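Recall the central idea of this unit: under ordinary conditions, the amino acid sequence of a chain determines the structure it adopts. In this exercise we apply that idea directly, starting from the sequence alone.
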Amino acid sequence: MKLIRFLAFLPLLAACKGGSSDSVFTLLSASQTHIDFVNSIQETEEDNVLNYEYFYNGGGVAAADFNNDGLIDLYFTANQGEDKLYLNEGKLSFKDITKEAGIDWKGEWKTGVTVVDINKDGWQDMYVSVSANIDKPALRKHKLYINNKTLKNGVPSFTEQAAAYGLDLTTYATQSAFFDYDNDGDLDVYLLNHNVKDFKRFDADAVHAMRDSLAGHRLMRNDGGKFVDVSVQAGIKGNPIGFGLGVHTADLNGDGWLDIYVSNDYVEEDYLYLNNKNGTFTDVVKEATGHVSYFSMGNDVGDINNDLLPDIVTMDMLPEDNKRQKLLFGPDKYEAYLSMLRNGFHPEVMRNMLQLNNGVDRQGRPQFSEIGQLAGIASTDWSWSALLADYDNDGYKDLFITNGYLRDYTNNDFVKYYADQGARKNQSVMEVISHMPSTKTPNYIFRNEHNLTFSNKQTDWGFDTPVISNGAVYADLDNDGDLEIVTNNINEKAHLYQNQTAEKTGNNYVDIVLNPKQAAQSATGTKVYVYSGDLRQFQQYTPTHGFQSSMMIPMHVGLGKAKTIDSLVVVWQNGSVQKLRNVAVNQRLTINYEPGTEASTPILSQPALLFAQTNTLDFQHQQAPLNDFSRQLLLPHMYSYAGPRMVKGDVNKDGLDDIYIGGGKGQSGELFIQQTGGRFEKSAQNAFKQDALCTDTDAAFLDADSDGDLDLYVTSGGYEYLPNDLLLQSRLYLNDGKGNFNKDASRLDLNDYAGNAVEVLDFDKDGDSDLFVCGSVMPNQYPRYQTSRLYRNEKGKFVPVKNDAFNDLGLLTDACVVDFDKDGFDDLVTVGEWTPIIRLRNDHGVFKRVQDELDQTTGFWQRIIGGDFDKDGDIDLIAGNYGLNCHFKASPALPLSMLTDDFDGNGTIDPIVCYYIQGTNYPAYSRDELLDQLAPLRKKYTSYALYSDATADEVVNEFKGKTPARATINELSTLYLVNNKGHFERKELPIQAQFSPVYAMATPDVNEDGFPDLLLAGNQTHGRVRTGNIDANYGQVFVNDRKGGFTYMPQSQSGLFLRGNVRSLLVVNNQLMAGINSEKVQVYTKAK
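Accordingly, the structure predicted from this sequence is:
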């Protein structure tokens, strides 16, 4: 496979070493283990990465007890040599039995290996995937090694019988996964394939309709020991752009049937096949996830937070350090990204993903929140295998990741060299390849911190040795109660890391051997639930894990300090259930198939949902498709997609609250009148239609003219306008007393341009309604902003109040009215982007800025709301921020910063966002992005290598005589601020509050206990390409614990599944309404 396809896809659319004596793991030498296998890769003019793109993908590992002696043996696949089978002789010493076992090699390029007892005789067999050999299909036949069940001096032997089983296919295979998809008791197989052909520009619909016999994925059904291709009738995609690199089978929606998750490289998104329980599958990845990895590689499935739901982790190739982030390729062209979306592809971002399972929606589809960046596992370089397991036996699954590539295939300088001159006819291929750098990087291991985050233990746990690793397995190779790790490396001996957790921590464990005892079923797919005190865990048994590897080993469960297992529940694949009680720890426990009376007992009870979706209001928000980056390239995110905001009030005096919903550019806002019974009917308002070209950003009902009815004030914003465009002016619509509105511009200030939010208050205590408007960004001039302003109501006319306190508030996004000093006058608290939380104290009609700690807490704030959450008689605050699930990091010591000036003197503002990576401040942009905006930098940074070391200050210093304005952010968390006698103290919210940017909040008492609870929503899917979608918030409920704190209510209990960019939440009686940009308003009714 040639490099050109990689480029074309994207614009389309010796002794012991490793670790100190305190390390959890120790890398053993080959002289100790006697494992001397090397996956040696020899590059030639014919065999190289430019001719076969997956040339450096490496080999896999299998772990299983092939001779049934109670010790786990190891099998390694080789790409250009013979595979190796090692017999475990105890004490981490192995013997090479490859030849005696009958493993042969005739020139095949082996990739993955899967352990399977395919004939159900109690002895483990192996299915080896084969690829490459493009012109030699006979050397691509996959191999099935059947265990002969005969031992000679303890050595097993195998006979290759793929043809007899119908599995001698010649596809370009990566890996296989055996599982019982039709619940008939035998094992079927999903065959993961990839392409070796060039794909440049193509029609997406046409390609998706194709079925490629060699590259397309396949599902093979086991019909009495013979495997039959049922891919078409089962709904399995077989198109030529599904570059499969990872596959896992698991029951992802809890219905008792095995589903399939497939990782696909390049533009084709991953597949999440839900089992329809009738022999067919439906791919629901677009409905179940907000986005997936771009270059998706290996994957794994496991419960990372012990909520008894399976989560998904996928690997990609985002480096951790700035140098490699800037030096290696990553998608950064927004138009190419839009092209991908327009062609029907799912959003993809180049980074590892952690998809947290929230339970199922009303259609039975699992709903995942992607939190890889919050979890701290998003950037581990060119990563292959992901293995979720409890490596320290504390009861929570940790994560091991292999990474490395023999050459930096995506090095931008090499890519440019190759495109410019590397393909010259008089130049040899090997000469071209010699220009491709080679870099080794260490593998990664992360400890689960029990709070949805992981800590990098590369060094602490002994994995700081640079190496190029691909396939990997974990297994308790010395039967001491902890898991060793084995990796298959390129051009280096395989690594075996001895785990010393059992000796060093004293944590307990149990290893579970599942014995179905019936020829009619397999242990594969069996679920196990373990309960010990407050600790509860879930695992589902499946052999294929990570990348090109598999493990037929006892199920390992760490137990921390628990001294006994209260109960252990087994749900066999056929649905039968059996329960064990008071199980001893620190043992290998064999569980024979003996289902009991628990067979009809549900394992996971379904709680009553707090909210149920209803359809009492029909409004579809519409927003003209705009690309703000085409106007100002360096924006942190777009500003055109602002609404819809919603506001309620009784406009027709019938005692029922009605609703105004703002429109997007090209759509007028709408008024909905509440009917008896809680339904809402649209009320036609011609005055609103005349302002359809405005972008509504907020609204407020107020009695502007003191005639006893509610009028409507609407702010305008957006980015696709002129700075002082008349369409950016705020609007006032007067009510005739019957709910009919007419625009009256004479009552407003003609300079009332571009507002983000409006608040109604009576700041002068004269009995009428005044207004405070948060100034919005000036179109095409970010981060410049319109000044925020206070308007006094003078007999129905709104007159600006002059006060220097409002001049430099910054780019405000929201405000709330609260008497925080309890003097009887309405004060203001404002938030904004690159601003602190600003308190404006009302001193008898004159506002003064309060200088305190909050005034130093700068963030990317989007919303603020008040409520007496601790019921002490004063108002506390919730400040909605950007959250922690993004690549930006900020702290007082290492703040996020923005340097702003017209650096190149072309009359446009250049905002350069910078952030710290490993202690140094760097620009947040790729070389191409920054140089496209600042052309003079091309003279300095003539190569990607030069730019990859450039700090923020070094870049700015290239523009002599410039003194850029500097703004900083030292806090990205959404904050809970408790009012303690006028002084606000920070109190932590549950970590789920940091999943996404918060753009919408509400404080109803959802459980009717007299304490206000908290609802948060938001998300941002109009960010930069490298930022990607931040969309993990499905509408969150935080229940007040009546002690001044909050507890997160899981989505599976709240019933909320709000997808998209939620920009407002509104509670009307027992109904919750969510305004979602470019989507229908979602309405939920609270259960009684």
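The first strand starts at residue 25 and ends at 28.
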